[in-house]
């Protein structure tokens, strides 16, 4: 198989997974204007924005003779469940004969999940598969652990230096072949970040923003206009509602997913039924951020996303009841960097000005 996958967040994780299983892996291109324009051109007009971006990525990959695309599915009434079929049809209409393998959560259908894993493992023994899964899970956790530290430290330190460390760490992780190497690299970069800790101010002078929203726009920096860096630039720490480790634990590992259930239960107060995507989970995360003492929420909503449109409609009530400011940003191919920067700056200024902590 000469395979690839959509570019999303720490893409190195998917590359290493398939590489260690012995596949010929083609790294997908990072979304940019050319890719987005291509995706917009060949996608249905009212498809949600992540669908269009992924169409563009797939079309660029076709130039590299990829014959298999591996992607995740979706559950509940959301378009993610149709991505595989619709992309296949678009590519076929354009003359590309490519197989799309959709990995659905084992919680939805254990037998289907087992069959997909069996196909993707190729000639590897089950013992090797277990070792690779352990290595990749450790890699995912290591990347998330380092990134969470960066999202705090960058608010108080030289962002150029911190970003350089983050880029070097990702480069080093590209070379790993075992869980032991993951641990070694993780410790090396956590140590490098340690010296920046002295810049963190006392607890009562720290401001924190929680970022919630649809998974693709939350995880993919090239699509969300590097929103985390923008928030950090104004001296606010950031934490996202979703990290890849959480997604893997909740969706790809059998017999887990309890954390997501607990978060979704908090969201039931505003969205009673499952409406797909991460809508109910996002409401739960917003409440959870408030309970953890965060100062504001930034909600990222891709254009054309029905679940996030519903969650946006309850944000005012949530904001009023829990006394936490919420900024919703809609993201599509027209979203301009300067627009996001201005709105984020105004939102963060307002938080400091009003000091919501005093009314708590
Ligand atoms: S959650 Fe929204 S953006 Fe994501 S696949 Fe579903 S409809 Fe599209």
- Give the radius of gyration: 20 Å
What ligand species are in this complex?
A: iron/sulfur cluster
Sketch the topology as an H/E string, one letter per element. EHEHHEHEHHHHEHHEHHHEHEH
N- to C-terminal distance: 57 Å
Q: What percent strand? A: 5-15%
**What profile does the largest beta sheet have?**
4 strands, parallel
- Tertiary shape: globular
Helix- and strand-based class? alpha/beta
For the secondary structure, the number of strands is: 8
With helices defined by DSSP (H or I, 4 residues minimum), what is the helix count? 15
Average predicted confidence as pLDDT: 92
Domain count, please report it: 3
CATH secondary-structure class of the largest domain = Alpha Beta
Q: Describe the strand arrangement of the main beta sheet, using strand numbers.
A: 2-1-3-4
What ranges have pLDDT less than 50 throughout 5 or more consecutive residues? none
CATH topology of the largest domain: Rossmann fold
CATH architecture level-2 label of the largest domain: 3-Layer(aba) Sandwich
Helix content: 40-55%
Notes on the structure:
This protein is α/β, with parallel strands linked by helices and 360 residues long. It has three domains: 2-124, Rossmann fold, CATH 3.40.50; 138-154 and 157-199; 200-360, Rossmann fold. The chain is 54% helix and 11% strand. It has 15 helices and eight strands. It has helices at residues 12-20, 33-42, 49-62, 83-93, 110-120, 126-153, 159-173, 179-194, 215-219, 227-233, 244-252, 258-267, 279-291, 306-322, 337-354, and strands at residues 2-4, 24-25, 68-72, 99-103, 208-213, 237-240, 296-302, 326-331. The strands form two sheets. A four-stranded parallel β-sheet has the order 2-1-3-4, sandwiched between helices. It has a four-stranded parallel β-sheet with strand order 6-5-7-8, sandwiched between helices. Helix 4 links the parallel strand 3 (68-72) and strand 4 (99-103). The chain starts with a strand and ends in a 6-residue tail after the last helix. The mean pLDDT is 92.
């Amino acid at each position: 198989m000469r395979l690839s996958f959509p570019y999303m967040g720490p893409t190195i994780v998917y590359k290493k997974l398939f590489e260690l299983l012995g596949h010929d892996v083609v790294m997908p291109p990072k979304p940019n204007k050319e890719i987005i324009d291509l995706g917009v051109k060949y996608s249905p007009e009212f498809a949600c924005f992540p669908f269009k971006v992924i169409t563009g990525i797939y079309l660029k990959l076709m130039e590299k003779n990829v014959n298999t695309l591996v992607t995740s599915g979706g559950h509940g009434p959301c378009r993610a469940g149709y991505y595989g079929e619709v992309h296949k049809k678009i590519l076929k209409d354009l003359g590309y004969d490519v197989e799309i393998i959709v990995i659905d959560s084992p919680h939805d259908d254990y037998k289907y999940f087992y069959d997909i894993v069996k196909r993707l493992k190729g000639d590897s023994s089950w013992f090797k598969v277990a070792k690779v899964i352990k290595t990749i899970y450790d890699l995912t956790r290591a990347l998330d652990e380092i990134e969470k530290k960066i999202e705090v430290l960058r608010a108080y330190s030289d962002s150029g230096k911190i970003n350089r460390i983050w880029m070097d760490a990702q480069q080093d992780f590209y070379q790993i072949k075992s869980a032991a190497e993951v641990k070694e690299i993780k410790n090396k970069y956590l140590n490098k970040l340690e010296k920046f800790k002295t810049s963190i101010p006392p607890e009562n002078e720290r401001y924190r923003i929680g970022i919630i929203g649809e998974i693709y726009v939350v995880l993919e920096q090239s699509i969300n206009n590097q929103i985390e860096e923008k928030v950090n630039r104004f001296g606010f720490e950031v934490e996202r509602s979703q990290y890849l480790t959480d997604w893997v634990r909740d969706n790809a590992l059998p017999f887990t997913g309890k954390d997501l259930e607990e978060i979704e239960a908090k969201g039931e107060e505003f969205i009673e039924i499952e409406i797909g995507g991460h809508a109910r989970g996002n409401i739960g995360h917003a409440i959870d951020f408030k309970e953890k003492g965060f100062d504001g929420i930034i909600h990222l909503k891709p254009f054309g996303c029905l679940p996030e449109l519903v969650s946006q409609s309850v944000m005012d009530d949530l904001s009023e009841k829990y006394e936490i400011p919420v900024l919703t940003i809609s993201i599509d191919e027209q979203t301009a960097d300067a627009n996001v920067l201005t709105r984020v700056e105004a939102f963060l200024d307002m938080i400091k000005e009003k000091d919501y902590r005093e009314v708590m």
